[in-house]
């Protein structure tokens, strides 16, 4: 499409949305380092405090499928002010929460606002830029997606060491409030009244479907698979999701339009990003465990270990976005996934002598590879959708990312735990045979750490094979164009209408 025939993108609106998305994503990983302090201060157990993370993920999984309806029904201004308002309210309540239950409620209120922001921003970018410039725009979004949550642990580690966990909320609250004020003053988009209604049964089925899956896999990751609660919630989730999909196929105005999977490049992109999402959580989860439990670094030091990789990933996102516009998605995805495969394999060779520098450099290359995969692949898939399906495509991507992250976390934790236990038994038997009797506490402690290291290495190896699956699929990527571009005039008109409507 000729860029000259399109309207100038609303850069002011996009800038405000990106700031809002940045603080939202920064908040996602902010509390992880602070969980031990919260446990001590509010007198709760680890199984309880984990709900600050699980609850946030659950609300996201429930809310995101509704965003396709919300984006079509309401204006950007109204949705943005509502989302940031909810996020700000949750942040303020979290700062002053006297009990854990109120803190959890505040965290879930934050999530209800956060869930709306990212699909809203992605939809605005899709309708504001033509296909030829969309890669650069989505690359800038990738900077937020990767950089904000990556610096969260390092920043929060420093804050918790020097202040306390409530300071995390006090830091975010005034920024979120300022973003809401700027949005109130500057956002002036209008939207004609849309005759669309939310199907209540679809909302219930979606809540039980995606919520059940997320809760089931999250519980399995924290407590193991030998729980009736895990099987029950997963069963409810699968059955509800199946009925939900059937209902959407029969509705004239579905809450979440699964017809987006009729477009092959979108379907391929969704599968690749889900597979990579599952494998990448091995790094985000296992590297801090290795740093703190095996080679004895502090939470602050383990955060600093990940920071250079996060910076490289963030800086590369706009670059890979522009390369995507010129080269397409396949070259970037194949190159990036090859780098991810190699670096993840090298992470399966960690030892007690592995240094801070070695891990940091390896993580830099791993994040460099990741910058070529996630956003270019997703953008290529979304490019094949007609403008009317953009809200459904972005909602589908964000929902599946949540689900795949939960599945990946639960699966990899199980892999690590099983390998750790079996290796510990092997080492214990060998040590007892050699010692001809009971082992000292020091020997037992060393065996446990050695078993943990073996579990981490084994999990990285499994992650390598998972990434290889995505690498094979990446060879089938083709440069995608909206279906409407077969008819130039029809596409130009659809693009103008989408920009005007949003």
From TrEMBL:
Residues 13-482 form the Major facilitator superfamily (MFS) profile domain. Keywords: Cell membrane, Membrane, Transmembrane, Transmembrane helix, Transport. The chain crosses the membrane at residues 12-31, 51-71, 83-105, 111-129, 136-155, 167-186, 198-217, 229-246, 266-291, 303-324, 331-348, 460-477. It comes from the Bacteria. GO terms for cellular component: plasma membrane. It holds the Pfam family MFS_1. One of its GO terms (molecular function) is transmembrane transporter activity. It is a multi-pass membrane protein. Belongs to the major facilitator superfamily. EmrB family. PANTHER family: MAJOR FACILITATOR SUPERFAMILY MULTIDRUG TRANSPORTER MFSC. This is Putative MFS-type transporter YhcA. It comes from Caldibacillus thermoamylovorans. The lineage of its organism: Bacteria, Bacillati, Bacillota, Bacilli, Bacillales.
């Amino acid at each position: 499409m000729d860029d000259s025939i399109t309207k100038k993108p609303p850069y002011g609106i996009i800038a405000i949305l990106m700031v809002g998305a940045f603080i939202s994503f920064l908040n996602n990983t902010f509390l992880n380092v602070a969980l031990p302090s919260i446990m001590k201060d509010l007198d709760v157990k680890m199984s309880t405090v984990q709900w600050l993370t699980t609850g946030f993920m659950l609300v996201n999984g429930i809310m995101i499928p509704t965003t396709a309806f919300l984006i079509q029904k309401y204006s950007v201004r109204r949705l943005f002010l509502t989302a940031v308002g909810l996020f700000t309210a949750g942040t303020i309540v979290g700062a002053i929460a006297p009990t854990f239950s109120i803190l959890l409620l505040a965290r879930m209120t934050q999530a209800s606002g956060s869930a709306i922001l990212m699909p809203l921003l992605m939809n605005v970018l899709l309708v504001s830029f033509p296909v030829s410039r969309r890669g650069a725009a989505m690359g800038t979004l990738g900077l937020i997606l990767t950089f904000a949550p990556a610096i969260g642990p390092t920043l929060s580690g420093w804050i918790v060491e020097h202040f306390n966990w409530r300071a995390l909320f006090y830091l975010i609250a005034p920024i979120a409030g300022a973003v809401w004020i700027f949005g109130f003053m500057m956002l002036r988009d209008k939207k004609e009244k849309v005759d669309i209604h939310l199907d209540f049964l679809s909302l219930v089925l979606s809540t039980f479907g995606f919520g059940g899956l997320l809760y089931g896999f999250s519980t399995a990751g924290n407590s193991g698979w030998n729980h009736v609660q895990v099987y029950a919630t997963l069963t409810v989730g699968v059955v509800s999701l199946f009925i939900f999909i059937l209902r959407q196929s029969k509705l004239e105005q579905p809450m979440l339009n699964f017809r987006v999977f009729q477009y092959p490049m979108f379907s391929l992109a969704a599968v690749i990003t889900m597979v990579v999402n599952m494998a990448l959580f091995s790094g985000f989860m296992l590297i801090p465990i290795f740093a703190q439990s095996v080679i004895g670094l502090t939470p602050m030091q383990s955060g600093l270990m990940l920071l250079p990789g996060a910076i490289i990933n963030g800086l590369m996102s706009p670059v890979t976005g522009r390369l995507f516009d010129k080269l397409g998605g396949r070259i970037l995805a194949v190159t990036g996934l090859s780098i991810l495969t190699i670096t993840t394999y090298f992470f399966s060779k960690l030892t007690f002598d592995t240094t801070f520098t070695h891990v940091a450099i390896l993580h830099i290359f791993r994040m460099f590879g990741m910058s070529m995969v996630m956003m270019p692949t997703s953008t290529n898939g979304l490019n094949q959708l007609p403008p009317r399906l953009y809200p459904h495509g972005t909602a589908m991507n964000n929902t599946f990312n949540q689900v795949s992250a939960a599945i990946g976390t639960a699966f990899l934790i199980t892999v690590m735990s099983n390998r750790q236990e079996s290796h510990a038994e092997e080492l214990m038997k060998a040590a007892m045979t050699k010692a001809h009797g009971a082992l000292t506490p020091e020997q037992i402690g060393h065996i446990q750490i050695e078993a943990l290291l073996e579990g981490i290495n084994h999990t990285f190896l499994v992650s390598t094979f998972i990434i290889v699956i995505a690498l094979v699929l990446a060879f089938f990527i083709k440069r995608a164009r909206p279906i409407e571009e077969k008819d130039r005039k029809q596409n130009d008109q659809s693009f103008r209408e989408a920009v005007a409507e949003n």
